[in-house]
Amino acid sequence: MAVAPGRIRALLTAGLLDSFGLSLGWTAFILIAVGRGGLPAAGLYNAAMLAGVVGSAPVTGWFAGRVAGRVLLTCTGSVELVLRVGTLAGLLIGWPPALLAAGVAAMNVAAWSGYAGMRAEVAAADPGPRSLTRYAVAIAAIEAIGAGVAALLPISGDGRLGGAVTAAILIVYASSVTPQFLIARTSAVRSGRELRSGLAGPADRPAERLLPADAAASLLPADAAVSLI
Description:
Blueprint: H1 5-66, H2 69-93, H3 97-125, H4 129-151, H5 163-175, H6 178-185, H7 192-197
Helix pairs in contact: 1-2, 1-3, 1-4, 1-5, 1-6, 2-3, 2-5, 2-6
């Protein structure tokens, strides 16, 4: 199968934008949480984040066997967009920690399922390991940069920040998901159900175009630890 350089560049650009916004917003979320609730609050939300990462594997597996990459990316992106804004806004206005933790867990299920779908798109555009490795390394690097930028934000010791900074964080945090929707429109990944039923044409049958239900966890990026602040 021929490599699609243009598709690889589009996937990499979308992944970098999304991961920068996610890392910046999540780091700001944790810094605000520490200021308002101390280390116990940070521990709770990081535990919820990790629970979401773990939970994303079976969710991705379920989606992979039933829906195409276009649907997976659209659904996970939509849920993640709402929960990014909702959890950060909820933290700022004082929602209960348990409710925020549930939102954080669900957000990370959607986020990491989306990452798995994006990696499947990379594998479909280039079945070899080179592009997939570059994608994962680039994502890890941009997440570190996003966390560093967030650490420089003027967040006070009690977790407060100015209105303009808050608005900027929310805009970047939310809008960085949108490239995923553009990628979904031209998704090359077919579901297991489509392939089994013969709905996909011969050109769509190579294994690398399918996100395997039993291997979804292997597509989760290895850079999840970067999100631990």
